[in-house]
Amino acid sequence: MKTEDFNYELPERLIAQTPLENRSASKLLVLDKRTGEISHHHFKDIINYLNVGDALVINDTKVLPARLIGIKEETGAVIELLLLKNIKDHIWECLAKPQKRLKIGTILSFGNGELKAEVIEIKEEGIVLAQLLFEGILIEILEHLGSMPLPPYIHEKLKEKDRYQTVYAKEYGSAAAPTAGLHFTEELLKEITDKGIKIVRITLHVGLGTFRPVNVEDVTKHKMHSEYYIVTKEATDILNEVKKNGKAIVAVGTTTVRTLETIRQKHDKFVPDSGETNIFIYPGFNFKAVDKLITNFHLPKSTLLMLVSALAGKDNIFKAYEEAVNNEYRFFSFGDAMFIK
After folding, report:
1. CATH number for the 3-63+161-340 domain, one of 3.30.565.10, 3.90.420.10, 1.20.120.450, 3.40.1780.10?
2. Considering the domain 67-145 in this protein, what is its CATH number?
3. Which of 18, 229, 238, 303 is the most exposed place for a label (fewest CB within 10 A)?
4. Rounded to whole angstroms, how far apart are CA atoms 56 and 215?
5. pLDDT tens profile 246-282
6. Cβ neighbours, 10 Å, residue 194
């Protein structure tokens, strides 16, 4: 299976640069994975495709305002640091630009020294380990000094920070938003609950690995970065009950799929669990957890495009993407949505 098999042409004008004013006003392409049938709707219509007793599973991770612009103390050179993951004791895995200007022992200063970072290890692909030095509460410092780490294909400035958060975001820890969830409003979630659909929260902290390009020719040789997840007993009790009753588990986003499939692949049922997952889902994967998926439109040759192709069939997905382009759908993080049923 070749990475190039997952390439497609996308006009640049279709890459969404800003979120819609009304989250649930985005377009919704509905794809039947059994028949390949496609229909066009608006996102608020998603409620018509959710049935009483189904579980709608959401990832309640919250994006850290973790993009920091600072200077090297010894030279004043400008350095950008993106905090990815807290390894332990405020030692963070970070993406540094430009990494080549850093060496072990380099001290970076942010906000006139309100936050400092000492480089303690240089790794591959722009990654460094840095010891953060500060007084007070880190998240409060980041909210003051940091900005949202928007993907590189978004060139417009974000007017409101919360538009790169889901309305149900709760647990800080992500370097990127689980963007399928950006379409939901509080009102729509209430309508879904009132209809008798169970809303289940899980957490997976999204790292940059999910969005890294696949740089190998053979898909199966790609190595996923690991991401931390946690699923509670309250969540697994509901999910097991839904499965037992023959109802659907509807995942909101690929991060939710990866979390649920990690647990079912390990335990063959839903059990409370936490840890790191580097699960890589591509065509040929045997799904054990997820029945249906709400997702956005993904980058060419990405692991996310491979995941949705595994669930719905590559031919179905590429036909749907072609139709989305022809109908001027908006693509990627702030773009429109797809429902795979």
Report:
1. 3.40.1780.10
2. 2.40.10.240
3. 18
4. 33
5. 999 999 999 999 999 999 999 999 999 999 999 999 9
6. 9
